[in-house]
Design a protein that fits this description.
The structure is a homodimer of 271-residue chains. With 271 residues, chain A is α/β, with parallel strands linked by helices. Chain A has a single domain (3-269), classed as TIM Barrel (Alpha-Beta Barrel). Helix content of chain A is 45%, strand content 15%. Chain A has twelve helices and eight strands. Chain A is globular. Chain A starts with a helix and ends with a helix.
Chain lengths: 271, 271
């Protein structure tokens, strides 16, 4: 099944555009989990069990695992979602980018090793570096376009000679050249609703992964109003820290569910 | 010791600007190694033992390991170099890039987990995404500027309103804003000697990591003449496939040494 079809189904079923980011920071995990052998997986499993009917996807950020040699728990987490909640797709947030020979290996990492349904990629090295990803017809290929951080302006906002910023050119290439397999999405920060609206206008109904609500300060109303497409969808709105660290106590999963539900409903209010 | 000082010492000692890329492709490893339990490490060890006095650095490309869950052998390889040839620095070719919270974890991955001496990073997300790397004063932070692949032109060559291409702006920011700790290097493909010369003129004696000679077709003479700095150095010229797969037989390490020596000498001819 194509990622975008799976996404459409679960968005409808769970009535949700919310993606929960499973970014387990060892220092922030509840104390009672510290004695568990696979504490990261144990943490994720509880969050997943508590939120699976509220989300349209989960996103795992590779760095939170690779910094601590926890690749095994990353794989376990994805397998757990696939086995228990097969309708919910998993996004591997890796932002990889390299020459095509190497990019093919990152494709293997994302889809053969981790069995992710979608992956984030950085477009800096151009079309041939993206090609091995774009060939994965059933996967979601999420290309960074206008990111949520303040430094995004340093390069992404530079105006090209035609007067359009670099991010506009990326969105334009995504629509006109890179999306032959109808598997391309764009990553656009919630912290820049104006840019979000501009890219929506340029890309018709293309789906966006939108990080930056919650801890990063992105505003939900502005995000939804600026980014929603003509089907009342086209957004995967990610929140990580605000949800998964809602409590550091034994009730962390219940607390996470509560915030996830509030966030989902808040998003739906403006759809 | 600062990476750039270590690099200067070994460049002098081994009279070499050559970096050997340890990118072990399972399908290309000599047949007699297939029965070894840690065949990737066994392969690397022989290449390292055979070439350590000919190089100024080794570069390990993470994807060749992470695609096959071989993080352990990647770590073993770097440890082996540090223990046996402590003068030779190791570059982790990871091309990471993310918001600063996540970038800090990639810093941990590169320097705490793998104990690399330098790392490649992608600048697309701007200054704050680079900051956690730039704060590592003793490490080498190698920022992608003009890459060796054909698709590099898609974004990196786009002309900004001042008439300068995007890669020029990256080189300019690297010199003027990002190099406060004197630990920044640029990654510039050997396949584009004209751009290399242009960036050399802009960045004074800054050191470049130059991939793309050998299998990717970059010309050594043009690379050295365009890229050398006023000290007759300032280049780390990487070759991977042409050297490490010089032979697929039991003599692969001897064959690799022969090509490495030829490449080093060819480079020196034009210094």
């Amino acid at each position: 099944m194509k990622f975008l079809d799976q996404l459409a189904d679960i968005t409808k079923k769970n009535n949700s555009l919310l993606c929960v980011g499973l970014d387990p920071d060892l220092e922030k995990l509840p104390a009672h989990l510290h004695s568990e052998k696979a504490q990261v997986f144990a943490f994720n499993r509880e969050i997943i069990d508590a939120t699976h009917d509220l989300v349209c996807a989960y996103k795992v950020q590779v760095a939170f695992y690779s910094a601590f040699a926890k690749e095994e728990e990353l794989a376990q987490t994805i397998t757990y979602i696939h086995e228990h909640y097969p309708q919910v797709p998993v996004i591997l947030d890796a932002k990889r980018n390299d020459i095509s020979n190497t990019a093919s290996l990152y494709v293997k990492e994302a889809f053969d090793r981790y069995k992710a349904d979608a992956v984030t990629v950085n477009p800096f090295m151009g079309m041939d570096s993206l090609q091995p990803f774009l060939e994965q017809k059933d996967k979601g290929i999420m290309i960074l376009c206008r990111t949520s951080n303040a430094g995004a302006k340093d390069l992404q906002d530079l105006k090209i000679v035609d007067g359009k910023p670099l991010y506009w050119h990326i969105a334009n290439k995504a629509v006109k050249q890179w999306n032959k397999n109808n598997n391309v999405l764009l990553v656009i920060g919630a912290t820049y609703p104006q840019e979000l609206a501009e890219i929506r206008a340029l890309t018709n109904d293309m789906t966006f992964l939108v990080p930056g609500v919650g801890a990063q300060g992105g505003d939900i109303e502005a995000t939804v109003r600026s980014g929603i497409n003509s089907n009342g969808a086209g957004l995967i709105i990610n929140s990580s820290r605000t949800i998964i660290y809602a409590s550091k106590e034994k009730d962390f999963a219940v607390a996470a569910r509560k915030i996830a539900e509030q966030t989902r409903d808040q998003i739906n209010q403006f759809r």
